[in-house]
């Protein structure tokens, strides 16, 4: 995913949450990524321009059988990622999952 300006990444959420997320990502243990099913595959499949794209479906299928799917999802939540597919869930899916989790 490319951005037209350095501040485009802020648009998806609060600046404070994004800054905390970036800092968390810098100190997080990311060794689980070595076991990820997506390792070495095109990054744009997980960061498509359109949410309903073929790449989005392909990415979710690869995530489905990934041995580190839960760690990936946890990472996205911890760093407040506002883009992409993590642990088989898009941002919209993660928001819905989080609302259901809080309600239940």
TrEMBL record:
One of its GO terms (cellular component) is cytoplasm. Its cofactor is [4Fe-4S] cluster. InterPro entries: 4FE4S_WBL (IPR034768), Whib (IPR003482). Binds 1 [4Fe-4S] cluster per subunit. Following nitrosylation of the [4Fe-4S] cluster binds 1 [4Fe-8(NO)] cluster per subunit. It is found in: Cytoplasm. GO terms for molecular function: 4 iron, 4 sulfur cluster binding; dinitrosyl-iron complex binding; DNA binding; metal ion binding; protein-disulfide reductase [NAD(P)H] activity. Keywords: 4Fe-4S, Cytoplasm, Disulfide bond, DNA-binding, Iron, Iron-sulfur, Metal-binding, Transcription, Transcription regulation. It holds the Pfam family Whib. [4Fe-4S] cluster binds at residues 38, 63, 66, 72. The Fe-S cluster can be nitrosylated by nitric oxide (NO). Upon Fe-S cluster removal intramolecular disulfide bonds are formed. The keyword Cell wall biogenesis/degradation does not apply. Its main location: cytoplasm. Residues 37-96 form the 4Fe-4S Wbl-type domain. GO terms for biological process: cell redox homeostasis; negative regulation of DNA-templated transcription. Belongs to the WhiB family. HAMAP family: WhiB (MF_01479). PANTHER family: TRANSCRIPTIONAL REGULATOR WHID-RELATED (PTHR38839). Acts as a transcriptional regulator. Probably redox-responsive. The apo- but not holo-form probably binds DNA. This is Transcriptional regulator WhiB. It comes from Mycobacteroides abscessus. The gene is whiB.
């Amino acid at each position: 995913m490319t951005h037209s300006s350095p501040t485009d990444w802020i648009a998806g959420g609060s600046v404070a949450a994004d800054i905390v997320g970036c800092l968390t990502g810098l100190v997080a243990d990311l060794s689980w990524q070595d076991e990820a099913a997506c390792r070495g595959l095109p990054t744009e499949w997980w960061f498509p321009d359109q949410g309903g794209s073929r790449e989005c479906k392909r990415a979710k299928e690869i995530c489905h059988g990934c041995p580190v799917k839960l760690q990936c999802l946890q990472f996205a939540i911890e760093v407040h990622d506002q883009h992409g597919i993590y642990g088989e869930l898009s941002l919209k899916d993660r928001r819905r999952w989080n609302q259901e989790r809080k309600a239940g």
